[in-house]
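I need you to check the entry underneath: sequence plus fold tokens. Let me know what the token row says about the fold.

>
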Amino acid sequence: MHKSISLAKYVKKRNGLPLGASGSLQAMLKRSFGAESFDMFWQYWNPIWGFYLSRNVMRPLNKLLPIWLSVLLTFAVSGALHDLAVTLIKWQVTFLFTPWFALMGFIVLISKNYNISYQGGSWAIRMLFNLFFIVFSFTITIVLQRMYA
């Protein structure tokens, strides 16, 4: 039987530093933005959140659905939870993160399917590519929301 990795080991694997270690935020930012693909960006981004999404959303969905749909729905669930948090804080219904994160999930699927990698580029070039995908998907989300508002 497969034994699940602990949160502490997962974070150490993703950050290169133990959970709660000094400099872990900087390590996460450096690894995620310097990732060689948008898919890899998400493997390093917020490892604690990723751990729980993987265990509680992605794995159960994978038992029922094809992996591409599980990825897309996991991104959408993450967005919905962000929308819920903002809604509770502002006491105003928010629907920004769900479509934005779903779009980023779609970009992850496309980049993985077509092996889009910027591995040979410097850290700054890789950061620009990853930042571009985030800003691009956010911009598309805002434009679509304004068109249909």
Summary: The radius of gyration is 16 Å. The first helix runs from residue 7 to 15. The chain has a mean pLDDT of 95. The chain has one domain: 7-147.
